[in-house]
Amino acid sequence: MLSNCSKSNNVNCKPLSNKCVKQDSKKRKFKEHVFSTLDQCINTSHDCNSIMSQLTGRPKYSNKNNNNKSIATAPIVFAKVFLNKKRTKFTYIKILLDSGASSSIAHERLFQKLNTYVDNSTVWNTMAGTLSTSKRGSLNIKMPELNETATIKIDCHVTTNKSNYDIIIGRDTLRELGITLDFSNDTVTWNNSTISMKPPNCNLTEHYFINDPSNVEEASDRMKRILDAKYEKANLNLLVRDATYLNKYEQDTLFKLLKKYESLFDGTLGKWIGRPYNVELREGVQPYHAKPYPIPKSYEMTLKLELERLCRIGVLKKINHSEWAAPTFIIPKKDGTVRFISDFRELNKRIRRKPFPIPKIHDLLLKLEGFRYATSLDLNMGYYHIELTPFSKQLCTIVLPWGKYEYQKLPMGLSNSPDIFQEKMNELFSGLEYVRAYIDDLLILTTDNWDTHIQQLDVVFNRLQEAGLKVNANKSFFGRSELEYLGFWITRKGIMPLPKKIKSILNIKPPTTKRQLRSFIGIINYYRDMWIRRSELLAPLTSMTSKESKWNWTEVHQKNFDLIKNIIAKEVLLAYPNFNNRFDIHTDASQTQLGAVISQDNKPIAFYSRKLNPAQTRYTTTEKELLSIVETLKEFRNILLGQQIRVYTDHKNLTYKQFNTDRVMRWRLIIEEFSPELVYIQGERNIVADALSRLDIVDKQYDLSDTQKLDTFYAELFDLNSNTTVNPVTYKNIMVHQQKDTHLIKTASTEKGYSVNVFHGGEKIRRLICYNGKIVIPKSLQRKVVEWYHNHLCHPGEVRTELTIKKHFYWKHLRETGHDACSKCHTCQLTKRGKKKYGKLPMKVAEATPWQTLCVDLIGPYKFIQSNKKPIELWALTMIDPATGWFEIVEIKTKRADVIANLVEQTWLVRYPWPDTIVMDRGSEFKAEFYSMITTDYNIKPKVITTRNPQANAIIERVHQTIGNVLRTFSVNETVLDTNDPWSGILSATAFGIRNTVHTTLASTPAQIVFGRDSILNITHEANWKLIRERKQKLIKYNNDKENRTRKVHNYKIDDLVLIKNEQSTKYGNTAYSGPYTVTSVNNNGTLHVNKGIVTDVINIRNVHPYTM
User: Fold this and answer.
1) 1104-1106 and 1057-1061: which strand pairing?
2) Phi then psi dihedrals of residue 596, to 5 deg
3) Which of 208-217, 452-461, 540-549, 648-657 has the highest mean pLDDT?
4) What phi and psi, each to the nearest 5 degrees, are found at residue 764?
5) What does the pLDDT look like over 343-392, one tens digit per residue?
6) What single string gives the DSSP state of each residue in 126-140?
7) Which burial class, exposed, middle or buried, applies to 68 when counting CB atoms under 10 A from its CB (0-12, 13-18, 19+)?
8) Concatenated DSSP letters for 645-664?
9) What local confidence, expressed as pLDDT, does residue 672 receive?
10) How many CA atoms lie within 13 A of 632 on its CB side?
11) Distances from the Cα of 134 to the Cαs of 104, 108, 353, 681, in angstroms?
12) How far apart are CA 106 and CA 327, in angstroms?
C-alpha cells in the first residue's frame, strides 16, 4: 500500500533513506531494508503486512511461485498505452490497480515521446518503507478487458525505479472511474463488465487482458480531536428571559419545565445508563504501542492539571501497564491551558467496525415541513456519556512521557464512535415521531399548539434524564418558529438554503482592469457546462479582454456582469449536495484575501471568500493558505463534517505532514476533525479559488436572521436573474417594459390595429398597449415570456407553447422566438426522445469473402413451454460467417469468458478456416480469456461494436429472430423433449433448418455455398460470388438509404456538444439522454469519440443527439 507525502517535512515516516524496518521472525530482531526497485518495496510491504491480509479477508500478494502452494491473485491488468499525442502508436503494458495507493505512478519510459510531465517531488510510504518520485504527468490508456473503446486519461507520478508493473493506478483514479473490487469473489467490475482477478506473476502471453485491483483497507489518516469536556451550569432564568420571541405564557411554562429537569443542565458530565460498549478487535491483530511525544517543559504542569481534571470527572484513569498506547501531543490555548490530541489511527485499523446507518440529511429535511414549534438540543460531547468495558479501556490507552492513561468513556477519534452514538440515540427515542436525531443534533418538532410542544419536550427530557445524559442549554434553542439545522434554515413555510453559500460571488466588485476581468471570466469558463447562456452573456465582457480594445466599462457590461453573478448564485444556492459522494474543496489565499469553492462532480456547491484583517496579512504564506482551508471547513461545517473530503491547494507545503508553529498546530486541531485528504494542485489549475482570493470584494453583510429577510433576499436575487422563476406576465411588469420600449410606443402611435386598453390587477388599473385586442409584449420580455410559459406548463412542445401564448399576447416573430427558446431548453433536450435523427450513416461494404469474418453473440433466455410441464430455459452461443451464412449454435450453462472461449474454439476454430476478424459486442463474456484466446493464440483481430448499436452486428441479430421463430414452432407442436438433454435435438434441428434454407441475398442455402452441393439432394452447386457481392451491396444500399431518409443532414464537428441516449429511459425518473458531452474526434464510420470526464468513449451517431445552446 502506497501513500504520498512531503519529501522534506515528513512526520509519519523515515524520509529520504528508502529504508524500512523488517522483522526477522527467527531472531525476533529488527533490521533495516534498502529498496533498489519498486517491486521490492511493494512485495516487502505486503510480506510485512500480515495484519492487512486479515483485515481484507484475503491472502497477501506474492510474486513467488511455490509449487506446493496455490498462487494468490493480485490486482493486475494488461492494457494499451498511447505513446504519442495523436494516439496512433501504442504498446501493451502491465498495470497494478492498487486501492491502497493514494495516487497513480507510471514508469518514465512511457513518457519519452509524449514529454508531458512536469517536476513534482513526492515521497511514497508503504507498510515497509519509502520510495520517491520527482515528476508528474498524464497518460491515455485503454483497458480492453473492461471496455474496448473507452480511452482513460490518468494523472500519475513518474518513476525511474525498475518494476514488473508499468503503471500503478491509485485509488484517486479507481474512485473516479467507479471500478468495483469484490475480493470475496475475486472479481472486478466497471460499467457492468465483470472480470476475474489473476495471479501476480502473470505475463502478457498467458493473460492478455486481466485486471485485479487490490481492495486493501485504505490507510486511515484521521487524527480526531479530544475536546475539553468542560461544562457550565446553565442560568435557566436568563436563558428563558432572552427568548423574546415567546410570549409571557410560553416563557413561564418553558421555565417551569426546565426547572423540573434542572439536573439535565447542571454542567456535569453524564453517564449513559446501560451496558458499557465493548470494542471488538479483528482476528490475529497485534497490540500497537507508540512512543510518547515530547512535551515542552513549560507546559508539563498545565497538562498534568488538565489530566487530573479529566481523571476527576471520569473521562481518564491513570494506569501503570498496558500493551496498547496511542501517541498524544498538546495544543496550547490562549488562556494558558492546553488541549491534547490522541492519534487512534493504528487502533482503528485493528478494530472491527459495526457500521450503523447514519440518517441521510436529505431524508431528514424532507420531514421537517409543517411544524409550529421547534426545539434543538445540543448534546455536544455525547460520546463521553458512554462507558467502555474494561477490555475496551485497555485498547483506548494513551501514552505521555510520565505515564499512561486509559479512556473510561468513548473517545473522539475512534472510528466506531459515530455509529455507536447514532444507534443509542435511535434506541432512546424510538416511537417518538416528533424527534429527529442526527448523531448529536437533536430536533423536536410540534405541529400542534404550544402546550403540546411542552408535553413533547417533557417526554424527551424525561428519557434523557433516565438515560443519564446531559444537555448544553446555552447552545440549545427552545420553541422556535425558525432555526438553522444541518446547514439549512427551516421555517414553518418550508426549508431554505443559507445564502452564505453564494455571498462570496455576490460580493465581487466590478473589475477595474483587464486582469481582474480575465479572472472573473475564468470562473465562468471553468464551469462552462453548467450555464447554457454563458457565451451570450460573456460576449460583451470577453471583447474587452483583447489587447486591441480600450477599457471602457459601460452600463451594458455592468448589466451582464450582475446578471452572470446572479445566474451563478441561483444555480449554486439551489444545488443540493449529494452526501454519498466526495466533496472537493479548492482553496487559495492572496496577500489580502482568502478564497475557496466547494464542488461535487465539477459543479459548485458553495463559495467562500473574505478579506484578511491587518494582522492576518502579516501571516506567512503557509499560514494564509492553511487559514483558507480552516475557515472554509468551519463555515460549512454542517455540510462537510463526517463526509469524504478532498482539499486541493496550490501551496505544496500544506500537503506535508509536519505543522510546526503554535498557530498552525491550533488550526490542525480543526482540520483533523474533518479528516480531509490534502492534494497539491498547480496554480494555473486552481482557477476558481485563485480568482476568489484576488478579485476585490465589497464587505457586505446580509442580515438573514428571520424568514422575512430571507424572502426579501431571494426575491431580489431571482428577480435580477430569472427568465423563468419570477412571473414576467404581470400587468405591472408588462407596463414597465412597454414604457421603456420607445420603438413600440412609436409603432403603436402610427400603425393600425394598436390601442391602449385598461386592465384591472387587484386594486390597480394598468393601461397596456394592445394589438387587435391582445397585449403586446415588448422585445425585452419576449424570450422571458416564452421560457416562463414553457417551464411552468411542464415543457409543452413548440406549437402548444406558441398557441397558449397567442391566446392573450402578441409580438412579431412570436413563432421564431418560441422555436429558439424551446429548441434550446436544457430540460426538454434531456428528457424528450425526439423523432428527428441527425447525421447520415455511411454505407458499409458487403461481406463476400468466405471465412474472413466471424460474428458471435449470445441469445436467451428462451422459454420452452409445454402443457402440464415446467418451463425450461435456453441460453445459447451463436456463430455465423456473414459471407456464406454458415451458422452454429451451442447451449451454454454459464456466461464466463473462459467457457465461451472454449466453445468458440471447439465449435468453430478447430473445424473451419480461421477468420481474420471476430465481431462481438461489449459483453463481459467476450473479454478476459476470450479476448486473450483470439488475439494471442489465433492472431485474430477483435472488432467490438459500439454500445447499444445492434445494427453493427445486424446479420446475427436477424438470425436470432429466425431462431426465435423456429423454437416457437417446436413449442406449439408439443415436441417431446429428452429429459436429460432437452436442447441438443432442438438446436441441431434449428441449425439444420437455417443452413438448408435459401437466403434471399445468396439465392441459395448456406450449405450449398459451403459444400458445393445440396444437403438433401445430390445436386451440385457453384456460387457466383460476384453476383452475391452485388446483391448484398444492393441490399445494404437499400437499407442504408431507407434509414437515412429518416435522418437529417448534420455534420458533427470536434468540440460539438452532444447528448447520449440512456438505457431504460422509458422508466419513470430516467431521462432520455445524458450530457451534454464534448466531441473529441469524428470518424468516417458513423462514430464519434465523446469525452465523458476522464473517459473518452466511441459512440455511434444512432445513439447521440446534438445539444443546442
Assistant:
1) antiparallel
2) -160, 155
3) 452-461
4) -90, 150
5) 787 888 888 877 666 665 555 655 565 688 989 888 756 778 888 999 99
6) -SS-EEEEEEEEEEE
7) exposed
8) EEEEES-GGGGSS---SHHH
9) 65
10) 36
11) 13, 10, 38, 15
12) 35
Residue 936: all three cell numbers together = 494471442
Task: Let me know: does 94 contact 204? Beta carbons within 8 Å.
Answer: yes
pLDDT of res. 789: 86
- Any idea what the Cα angle at residue 554 is, between residues 550 and 560, rounded to 5°? 110
Three cell numbers, residue 915: 477468420
Question: Cell 452447386 sits at which residue?
Answer: 1021
Whether 598 and 585 have beta carbons less than 8 Å apart is answered as: yes
> Against a cut of 0.90, is the pTM above it?
no
Residue 876: all three cell numbers together: 445459447
Which stretches within 619-752 are classed as H helix?
621-635, 637-640, 662-674, 687-694, 707-721, 731-740, 742-750
8 Å CB contact between 230 and 680 = no
Rounded distance between C-alpha atoms, residue 177 and residue 1097, angstroms: 13
Vertex 4, ends 2 and 168: CA angle to 5°?
45
pLDDT band at 208 (very low <50, low <70, confident <90, very high): very low
Q: 3-state SS of 1009-1073?
A: HHHCECCCCCCECCCCHHHHHHHHHHHHHHHHHHHHCCEECCCCCCCCEEEEECCCCCCCCCCCE
Nearest to 816 by CA among 774, 783, 778, 785: 783
User: 158-184 pLDDT, tens per residue?
Assistant: 888 777 788 888 888 888 888 877 777
For residue 433, what are the contacts with CB-CB under 8 A and spacing of at least 6?
A: none
Estimate to the nearest angstrom the gap between the alpha carbon of 1101 and the chain centroid.
27
Q: Which residues pair with 1047 in a beta bridge?
A: 837
Between CA 855 and CA 888 the distance in angstroms is 11
First to last CA, the chain: 46
Q: Give pLDDT tens digits for 336-354.
A: 556 667 778 788 888 887 7
Axis crossing angle, helix 555-574 with helix 514-526, rounded to the nearest 10: 30
pLDDT in tens, 623-652: 888 888 888 887 777 677 767 888 888 776
Residue 1018 cell numbers, joined: 445430390
- The neighbour count for residue 830, using CB atoms within 10 Å, is 18
User: Which residue reads 443509542 in cell numbers?
Assistant: 424
Cβ neighbors of 581 (< 8 A, separation 6 or more) are 600, 601, 644
DSSP state of 292: P
Q: What is the mean pLDDT of residues 1049-1072?
A: 75
Residue with cell 500503478: 168
